[in-house]
Structures
1.
Amino acid sequence: MNYTDEYVERVYAGVLGKIIGVYLGRPVEGWSYERITAEIGEVDTFLQQRRGVPLIAADDDISGTFTFLRALPDHGNSIEITPRQIGHTWLNYIIPNRSILWWGGLGISTEHTAFLRLCCGIPAPQSGSMALNGPVMAEQIGAQIFIDGWAMVAPGDPELAAELARRAASVSHDGAAVHAAQVLAAMEALAFVETDRLKLVAAGLAVIPKDSIIRRLIEDIREWWAAEPDWRRARQKLDDQYGYSKFPGNCHVVPNHGLIILAFIYGDDDFRRTLTIVNTCGWDTDCNSGNLGCLMGIKNGLAGIDGSAADWRMAVADRLYLPTADSGRVITDALRETYEIVNIGRALRQWPPLLPKDVARFHFEAEGAVQGFQVASGVAGGERLQLKNVAGHSRLGRRSLAICYKGVTAEEPAAIATPVFLPPETLASKGGDTYTLMASPTLYSGQLVSWGAVAGEGNRHPVEGRLFIDTFDAQDRPTRLFAPPVVFLPGAYRQASWQVPDTAGQPITAVGLTITPPSGEAPGEAGETGDISGVIYLDYLTWSGSPRIFLGPQPGGGHMWRHMWVNAVDHWRAAGAFNMCQNEGIGLLICGSGEWVDYRATATLRSNLAKAFGLAVRVGGLRHYYALLLTDQDKVQLVRRRSDAEEAEVLEEKSFVWEKGAAYRFELAVSGSILTALVDGRPVLSTFTTLAIPDPAPLSRGGGVAFYCEEGQLSSAGIAVSPV
């Protein structure tokens, strides 16, 4: 297999298959086969519109899959990664009771139970063991739900995939649940180089014990398929012999793994038919469909998805959410996650990373990729405006996004946009029954947006392209701010940059591009009919630098700024100012993104009671930051927390007597490896240091800001962030 183009394409198809499968199964999650067939018939298309809910939503099946794989880059992309280290990754990214997991409680939710074990200092794999948690808890479905990424970093190597899957699964599960995860991982890894379905199933069986119930289940399904051509009758056999009545718990792995294998074998090697079968069968539909969609995507590539009668990709437009404590990575897309996975897989082989178009955020370097771009709100689409990923028309790569426009005018421009934050209608919404969709924007005031595009050589008329951002005014009303126009003559390639203007602390929700006639051109100058039609090929769009922004309440009284913060403290009130408390351990209130590398953060803080309180920078999770703190031992400290370390490391410490309830101005600046800290304008320390974590990519050293509160209370008016 080609470990560049072909590898990227198959991983991209796997990622798309995963999210399409989850979105397809999500509306009927937990339904029985009987209810689905009675109320719907077959689940062969997205049902969200029928049910009046958004198609793109936070889902634990997606969040866990792509988040837990970060254990590899966070621990140096070592092939020897341990369950204990993967457990550290859980503790860094999971916000207790709010993100990724089903928070059903100790002894009810397997993942919640394992997470509580980790928090109590019980390391993996003991945290997920049958000996500690019992067989019912240990053999629920979660391990196989999150396993796809571990297979995609081991293309063509089912043994390695199964071993990585075993380590990852054992953080929370044991027994049959681990075996099921290993089977899927082995099948997906081999699917990069093998197309025969039965050979893939055999590869899965080869990595689990001969006496595993998962082996017996799969062998029975193969026998049914050989004798019974009707998948519905086979499903009934599965229900009779391996159904929920036979296996206790909220969602046991055995019945659901059986449905994955059944649909895979009976699906005629067709993406849509396979997902239709597994979703119509019921039970844990989104989980089963997500795993199976990933497997089918890897196996048959993009052609298998695009060849379906359903246009899955136009509806999804690559969009997904990964709500974690890494606040700036929540808003993402399928192609971005694809390259994260591909570069982990390459790093495991000690190959250099692939960095399309000089690490541009939007580069479109995969067939069909739109990276969230759609017709902008308030603009007519249809025949007037269409988007298509095409080969060529790029100076930095091999593909571009074609923006095909027809009949544009100054009053009716062509406009496209991609989200950089949560849509207004989803702010503070629940991603599921028990986890909240929280995120920080990926773009901020003061950052530099750069883009390049070329006008079609066949265009008859020049046009203007203008970048824009969508944000809110002081009263929380949506507003659009524009960059200066760039004129495109037919065939001309143009590059431009724009420093994002001040949004008065309000979040930016989208970035986009409008196409209009050149300013001052009178109607009719474009021709007798006034018709301006053509194509602009967007080569790339990206941004860089640190912001210049005040993160906090604004004079206008709006409240949208509150949604920019990812809440990992026990209690937070923001009525005119921040007021938060943490009952036990360390709590963070986080805002920002990984593009923030070198910057200064300033805040005035008060505490009536705290073990420690302060300001953190380069925050990449709950266990990845620098922090300037005042402690209850009358000390000022500069600490570094690494995601792979058990405890924070005190880099510098000095005596500092502080008064409860008094205001103290904290300033913490970071530039490369140099940290500068001031309290009330007094330089308390300046030290040379480096992040003591592996640095496989430059952005891994960046991160946002946070209020730090350890067992106590903290209040502030906000945090000012500026470049150094």
2.
Amino acid sequence: MSSPASASGLESAYHRLHPKIRRWIRDQGWDELREIQARTIMEVLDGDRDILIAATTAAGKTEAAFLPILTSIADRKASGFSVLYVSPLKALINDQFRRLEELCESMEIPVVRWHGDAPQADKKKAMSKPDGIALITPESIEAMFVRRPADAKRLLSAADFIVVDELHSFLQGPRGLHVASLLRRIDAMAARPARRVGLSATIGDLGQARAWLRPADPDRVAELLAKSDAPELRLQVRGYVEPLDLDDPDHAEGGTGSEQDLPRRIALDSISDHLFETLRGENNLVFGGSRRTVESTADRLRRRSEKLNVPNEFYPHHGSLSKVLREELEDRLKDGRLPTTAVCTSTLELGVDIGSVKSVAQIGAPRSLASLRQRLGRTGRRRGTPSVLRIYLREPNIDQKSGILDRLRPNTIRSVAVVRLLLQGFVEEAGTSPEIASTLIHQILSVIVERGGIRPKPLYDLLSGPGPFASIAPADFANLLRHLGSRDVRFVEQAEDGTLMLGQEGEKTAQSRNFFAVFESGEEWRLTVGGRTLGTLPITYPVHKDEVREKSLAGAVVADHEPDGGSAVGDAVDVAQQGSDLRGSADLDMRKTYSRNDARAQRLDDRIPFLRLYRLRSLAHVVVSLSSANRGRSCGAMTISSPSSKRGSSKRSKDQSFIRSSAPSGRSFIARARSSNSTFGMDPFSSISSSSSVCGPSRPSKDAPFAAEATGVSTVEGAGSSSKMFASSSETTAVSR
């Protein structure tokens, strides 16, 4: 770990930068470099190690990495991208592009965005003359490997640096396994592996992050930690009790949430009252636990604005809204001229630049210290201003029939515990990823396509060395290949010389436009009104009865995903869509119902427990009509684009073991196969040791401490009818998550 930089060190680091970068710094009006920036400059320019930069949100991590990297590549003449910047979000790529474009233009260093929404002309130009910086999503790297393997080597293999932003988001889950495998494959085709630079504000275990960044040699990764300069924290925890026998805590305002006819107030009504009174006139973020909570809250706040005849300042932001609507809200926040509060899911949690906000509110108990720290970093960015956090809790009404868990007020206990750990600076380490086998199968198919066929031993050496699949023993890998080549699965087949090739089902899978992502997203309909796209309508789960009557449109699990690269920001939610074009109520008219075969999960065997079988969902169409509540007449037809409208519906036999849907948002690749005793005609691993090992993670996860003593939490006056405030005065210790 590097020591803090002295004043002379800061000055020395500044003069090490390229002259055009020094001029750019002066034009920005910077008084001096920050310590983390100076230390990173010296490490990049004087060393040859990989670098892990851990600093709080808005600490200048991006500049810390790119200023010395641009200095290093300024005079490079070799063909191919000099720098790969890998980001989990397209929106973050667009934001970084705006931040780098002016500086790179002055240095004559090309910079190109590479994802599903990026301009095709810019990508074609970069393909013809690859140079400079590529800001790219993991899915776009995968698409390049599969679609253009020769170009992938020409463009990616000569990189000097690979920068991984928001590294903590890749430390667990299938997407993290996927990215780690892609980096390993890029190194394999390079004459000299690129130096890796990881950026994050919330890392719980630095050793774990170093091992992810350079699995073969974690000790080669230099840790650069920014000195803590956290602003004053102002915190409030407010609790509300729900009415008895509540069926739906997020139902639209005025609804009952049950079969009763008379409306009654719920906790969210009182929470919205306090948000409206407290947040008006400033820029704020309100995080809901789901899209459904986000829409229901934003609608309540809009109603209060209309009732008082004041401009609405509260707008929803989540993955099901169209990109145009989301970007309009982001620009309004960043501009700062009009007071704006975004009620959002995790879409505004990561590092997209929306400027500084006065406060952050959260509806529901925080479930992750890393996530809460990321959200809290949005406030208190200006020197001398505090960070403001409000947590709103909803607890069930307690009566004689209530169980012991409800009586313990678990949401309150969890919130107090999180606050205690937050003050201690604790961040939980990333857990292990159970999707190892399904992600490995995805990469097996990808490599076979990229190489046009490959023998088992080189395939194993490429994928299963130090890295995401290090726990896969040769015997497990051999059994997996045999199973994928079985008569029932037919993902791969083997030529007489031992070369592995795609089988019949493997070809269908690899040719799918949804193959490039390893996360799963729900099927969606696209909704437009008057020619303007409002967003998408998830169809994975049925519509709630009150949503049909009130205002909501549907419920689902949705991820922001494009076939050529996208972001995976999804949470289990119901969508209650509203906006400037939707002022009336939305009634779902199921004139043609849709039917689907239910998804079926199936365990293959004890050695490969992670594979699932899905059946095709055949869908008819849904007609949605809008009626104006104020005018009593139709206010426009809503067009819904069917998932299969462009490609036609697929019809396959129910006996087939792998069936996919062609939804426009994309259903991610997850290995789906059936167990079988049949094997290859020849042993695919005759030259590999057959030592047995259970397929699974390399080390067990550690339960992070989650304990707190809660005394007198949130003694706040004020109550609203059946949704009343409560104060916690119990002492609780050793609370387990």
